[in-house]
Amino acid sequence: MATPSLSLEERLSSYPQLRERIEALLAIVEDPTAEMTRADEAERQVIAEVRRLGNEALCSWAAHHEAAQRATVEQPGTARAGEKNSTGIQRSGKSAWSSNSSGRRAT
After folding, report:
1. Is the pLDDT of residue 16 over 60?
2. Pseudo-torsion of CA 14, 17, 18, 24, nearest 10°?
3. Residue 91: which pLDDT band, with cuts at 50, 70 and 90?
4. 37, 45 in Cβ contact below 8 A?
5. Cα(72)–Cα(65) distance, integer angstroms
6. pLDDT for residue 4 is more than 70
7. How far apart are CA 45 and CA 33, in angstroms?
8. What does the pLDDT read at residue 99?
9. What is the spatial distance between Cα 21 and Cα 50, in angstroms, rounded to a whole number?
10. Residue 99 belongs to what H/E stretch?
11. N or C: which end of the chain has fewer CB within 10 A?
């Protein structure tokens, strides 16, 4: 993993969904309204947010990876995969084994 020259806030500006999840986690930690009075309530909310964060992170990764792959494929001079040209192995004649169903070689 390369060390980025941008701050975390600058990096998160490119991923608004991830920013929302981080802010939701911070809201749970700071709990300005003191709605959560029990640790199990806080734990349940943190787990739900971390799952959402993981999902958003993977979706963002997939979109970024797909765009990078598409850019690589669409470069000039890059050949696209097409139909196979091979039709298989061409038979040169009738096999001695093909007309005999007993498993013995025909003589």
Report:
1. yes
2. 140
3. confident
4. no
5. 11
6. no
7. 15
8. 57
9. 8
10. none
11. N
Tokens of 39: 């640790």
Phi, psi (degrees; rounded to nearest 5) at 51 = -65, -45
Residue with tokens 């990096």: 11
Instruction: For residues 38 and 36, give the distance between their C-alpha atoms in angstroms, rounded to a whole number.
Output: 6
Question: Which pair of structure tokens corresponds to residue 65?
Answer: 């990876």
Contacts from 43-52 at CB under 8 Å and sequence distance 24+? Answer: 49/21, 49/24, 49/25, 50/25, 52/21, 52/24
Q: Is 28 in contact with 49 (CB distance < 8 Å)? A: yes
58: amino acid identity, one letter: L
Cα angle: 14, vertex 16, 28; to 5 degrees: 135
Structure tokens at 59: 């979706």
* Alpha carbons 107 and 105: distance in angstroms, whole number: 6
Start-to-end CA span in the chain (Å): 68
In this structure, which amino acid lies at residue 29?
V
Kindly state the tokens that stand for 98.
């093909």
